[in-house]
Write the structure tokens for this entry.
Amino acid sequence: MTAVIRTVADLRAAVAGWRRAGDSIGLVPTMGALHEGHLALAARSRTDNKRSIATLFVNPTQFGPKEDLAAYPRDEAADLAKLQTANVDALYAPSVAEMYPAGFSTTITVAGLTDHLCGPHRPGHFAGVATIVNKLLLQATPDSAYFGEKDFQQLQVIRRMATDLDMPVEIVGVPTVREADSLALSSRNRYLSAEERARAAVLPRMLSDIAERLSKEPGAVVNEIAWGFRQLEDAGFDRIDYVEVCDEATLQPVGRVATPSRIFAAAWLGRTRLIDNWEIGRQ
């Protein structure tokens, strides 16, 4: 049975009991609307640790003023049922007041890694992510925390934060879980109409094609990015925020693939913003 915990005090009490028993602890931060991608994180946590905690908190500070905070899908009962099936020990589902009490005035900013990709398109987003993840890590004090590679920029930001702040936690990236047509699983996919969902499959196909070609011709970055834009435009994407090839460690754009790199893209279908990335050289 998955215990539901609402407060920092109760979470720390549960963790303290597990620590006294010598148990290792894994943390899976989520905003709910759970799908197989989240459950893959939970499965990895269960493999690595004696105890696993999933969090459910729709974090208001990572949403911009015109983004989908109010409409973001919420179904705690369904999420809890999935976590019970996955044998997660606890669901930590605090209120906004618990996480951001009166007078809260601290923000964590990770520079450099947020200069490109989603950073310019979502001002303040990564500061909100870094701040809430920092709080969750301090509240749960896990041995390991698990994040999906679909949000690769987020993963790298969290890794940098944990390293820079000397946090005693391993940040573990888990490969993206995909549909049969390679579309990355995302809670926001449910916003897509049937017609938009069919077009969405062009995004991962474009990324995988570019990654394959750049693994053979690493100097063709500029031409491949232009080709990627055309593919998305021809598929009827309403807006393209970016198609970029970046170094994996620094997330800085590269003109030639000479280090471990990925091809990243973000584009809109209707009101749904899709992001994805593909490792260059992946077979």
The mean pLDDT is 97. The chain has two domains: 3-174, 187-277. Residues 2 and 83 are 7 Å apart (CA to CA).
